[in-house]
Amino acid sequence: MKGKPAITVKMPTTGKPQPTKRSVNKATAPSPTQSINKSNKASLLAPIPSCCGCGTLTSEDTKALQCDRCSATNAWKCIECLNISVEVYEALIMAGEAQVPIRWFCEGCDKTVMDKNVNSDGSSSSDKIDLLVSAIEKLMERYENIEKKLETKADVIACNQLDTRMKQLEEKLNNLDKVIDTKFTGLEEHMKKNALTDEELIKAAVYEEINRKREEDKDSDARKDNIILYRVPELKSSSATDRKTSDRTFVNDLCDGVFNMTLEEEDISKMYRLGRYVENEVRPLLVAFRNYEHKERIMSNLKNFTSQPIEKFRRVSVAHDLNPKDREEIKSLIQQAKQEHVDNSDESTENYWFRVVGQRGRRRVIKIKKRN
């Protein structure tokens, strides 16, 4: 299809036949009255157009199209036979009124036009019309979707209310900022008036460190006569007195059988289990001696456990009663020693005991090979 020829979209009409050319002899021209009578007669005798597909008579209310080429009275076709929607039909009518180049042909004219209007690429005007109709249908569908989306949008009143609420929140935030600025200003002035000098800050830090050190030393001194026994069997009884008596008997037997020590009643100042009593669990046992010599004798002869013939003492282990800081230091030293062993030896750490010896600040780890 070359260029943009004018569109002719014709609405169905009744009683409007196509004008015909006649040769008129000026000398024998009919009178005006005779011409009017003949015109009325021709209108009455004109056939009523009908759909060439289904035969439905077309009137001004019928949605149908007439062939734009032959304009014959039998060249009408309704939208049901054309298989197009009302929306597409109305869009075509509007396109015709706007002089958009769209045409419709009856089957006979369509065949003639198709034979003449086949393009060099094999496409035809009919193909382009089908594409255009499809495009119009898509546009109509898109228009309907847009309408549906617009219905879900907030209305003007809701938008205005939201805008008012936002302005109120902004005003509150501005007021809050002013209050915070005022308080910060007052705080800064107060700090300037009561600010400590560098010398005073240093003195306070030193004093705090001295107090912390003093508390640690006091705690360590209170623990220096204590030992902790692990895996000492605990009597399964609800009576605390019976459990304490059982523990005292076990400690006396342990000191006598392993370390050749005979303990008197007053040699132990206190003894208790660490943690809450839970059935079927063995809690560590803390033993506090009245003098340091008893503890020192036990800790210096721990090797006696290796040659111990008494079965009930073989799984027992003894450790110092340390404060949390010392325990953390010893734990870290043992972990470092095990890592060094893994890096420098092919043997497993399970074949060795790792023990920490020495006082605070001079502690070190020794490695003792286990006997088979």
Structure description:
- It is a single chain.
- With 372 residues, the protein is of the alpha+beta class.
- Among the domains are: 29-119, Zinc/RING finger domain, C3HC4 (zinc finger) (Herpes Virus-1, 2-Layer Sandwich); 220-321, Alpha-Beta Plaits; 323-372, no CATH class.
- It contains 10 helices and 8 strands.
- The protein has helices at residues 32-45, 79-82, 86-97, 107-116, 125-152, 156-193, 198-223, 240-259, 292-299, 324-344, and strands at 64-66, 76-78, 226-230, 268-273, 285-289, 317-320, 352-357, 364-369.
- Strand 7 and strand 8 form a beta hairpin.
- The longest helix has 38 residues, at 156-193.
Outline the fold blueprint.
Layout: H1 32-45, E1 64-66, E2 76-78, H2 79-82, H3 86-97, H4 107-116, H5 125-152, H6 156-193, H7 198-223, E3 226-230, H8 240-259, E4 268-273, E5 285-289, H9 292-299, E6 317-320, H10 324-344, E7 352-357, E8 364-369
Antiparallel strand pairs: 1-2, 3-5, 3-6, 4-5, 7-8
Entry summary:
With 372 residues, this protein is of the alpha+beta class.
Shape: elongated
CATH architecture of the domain at 220-321: 2-Layer Sandwich
CATH superfamily of the domain at 220-321: L1 transposable element, RRM domain
CATH topology value of the domain at 220-321: Alpha-Beta Plaits
Question: For the terminal residues, how far apart are their CA atoms?
Answer: 105 Å
Percent of residues in β-strands? 5-15%
What is the succession of H and E elements?
A: HEEHHHHHHEHEEHEHEE
**CATH level-1 class of the domain at 220-321:** Alpha Beta
Number of strands: 8
